[in-house]
């Protein structure tokens, strides 16, 4: 839908397209119900989830449009549970049924989203509002796994620990035992799939052909199974293509067994007095065939009951879990939903959730910014104590102040579905109010001329405003708000947040932890947060936090004129470049390729972080704004200077490079020469700065200085020289026009 002005003809055309989409949605929904209930749904559900596994689906976003997405598996499961179960049919063509179902589910999802075209308006304000609502709907529909698996498990387990006593009062078992049982389902699923995939790889080897292929397939089978398959394969064993097709079909028939469990098996290690209660809770998290209603189907895309009840109840104390992904993604929300059924337990869970968020934020900042002074529950007043303001966490690192405001409120279901009033209220609580809170403290620091006193959980402390060069503000939430947090200019236009609001970047605590973990250096983490705010202020883009992390991992946000030219930047999906890798303690974790950096430049950054001279965070920011081509250019100048001054203590080499977008130009100067007395050293800096700034046309310059002969350090001096106007025409050297600063 266009956000601009639409003519009457364009509105009419959009309405027709929306009407067609509504018809397509109803048609494909009807066809899906028929397809998913025409054959044993467990068979094609198993095939669907194995497609996700084999394709290696990233839980955050699909790798490409042809892959089956996790939310589509959820939809298929809900559709299959809308009717009584069809008994297994040995003659059913399950691969064909699966292909038809997955094709229809894609059409149905697209039609659901396209229905919104019927809401197009001649009024551009209404269109902008609708586009924002569409954005949150699309994000709610398609995105799963805002946390990494280990983060979900940690939170679920720690939340359960906090509410154990109250939970047992209502459910007869401890919440941690329920989490352990659900985690066991995930682990068993993953273990079974891993073993099966290893078996598949063993017989699918290209070198296996004919008898070798058959032997590899049947190697681990019992004699009866081996004889039965060998007999079936006799007529095609000389045709590898047909033989492979037969064996693949048999292989697919095994998949459903990977996801079948007995309730009793999951409580074998639980305390005996809690075992039956745990089974009762698991049964509450299970749906029978026929439990999904027609009303559920109409709103299935934005409110799928499968997310809260992911298990399928079967006869004989059995249940079916469609793979570990769905249960793993929603584990924490399942625990919260169980707590939400009882007011007192819900209140206890909400308090535990808020406490956990603040603790996790503090632990994350302290772990990944070890040289920061971290203060929690920072209180201050600007009216003599009449009014006391509070910030959740303040970190002071060198000349940088980071202000974090933590909000644990949930984005409610109506807001996720795009209900305007609910979404506006949620954004006010999660984004607008904490932004105002952090802005108040930032302005207090900027306006002060003397040290400011604060109280905190750790005791009183001071901030010296004159030494502060950068203040970054962040809203830290518990649940990700997806790409909405990067759309505040459009949110203002749509009336979802106030026009005059100064919005701070918003990210979940899980995203903050992931960013800090994947960004390798302390100075880079500070740089990310500072540039994150600038990117949000300067550009128009669509992305969530992991997309931005992927962008930073390749560019360090050095995107040139794209930052300022006003064009729409489509970064949504860049997180596909982030890969899950094996981790000994976590199972898997995200990883990112580091930004291209020369060894020469890496050594400078490492040296800066090791020595941490006054102003090191700001020096680091300037160094991190240099892309690899400029790094090579500067290294070339250094080598030239060393060549010219080698054995010539009387020579002083200097040169400069100016680069960057037109609105963010910066100059870096290179100085190479023999060690000299302080007075001469200062004169060398003045000479170098004067030349570099005249050439670059800037007001300040970062100078990197190397002594010849070389020392063991990656550089010997770093500093910023800033040009100032002469106070009088008679000023001489003792009042120079250049002032050295740790800027």
Structural class: alpha/beta
Q: What does the average pLDDT come to?
A: 88
Radius of gyration: 31 Å
The level of helicity is 40-55%
Q: End-to-end distance, in Å?
A: 47 Å
Specify the number of helices: 24
What sort of overall outline do the alpha carbons produce when their principal axes are compared? globular
Integer tally of domains: 4
Q: Which fold does the CATH topology of the largest domain refer to?
A: Trna Endonuclease, Chain: A, domain 1
Written account of the structure:
α21 (599-611) packs antiparallel against α22. This protein is an alpha/beta fold. The strands form 6 sheets. It has a 5-stranded mixed beta sheet, with helices on both faces. Strands 16-17-18-19-20 form a 5-stranded mixed beta sheet. The chain has a 4-stranded mixed beta sheet with strand order 1-4-3-2. It contains 24 helices and 20 strands. It is 50% helix and 14% strand. The chain has 4 domains: 8-142, no CATH class; 153-283 and 305-339, no CATH class; 354-532, Trna Endonuclease, Chain: A, domain 1, CATH 3.40.1350; 599-741, no CATH class. β10 (470-477), α17 and β11 form a beta-alpha-beta unit. The chain is globular, with a radius of gyration of 31 Å.
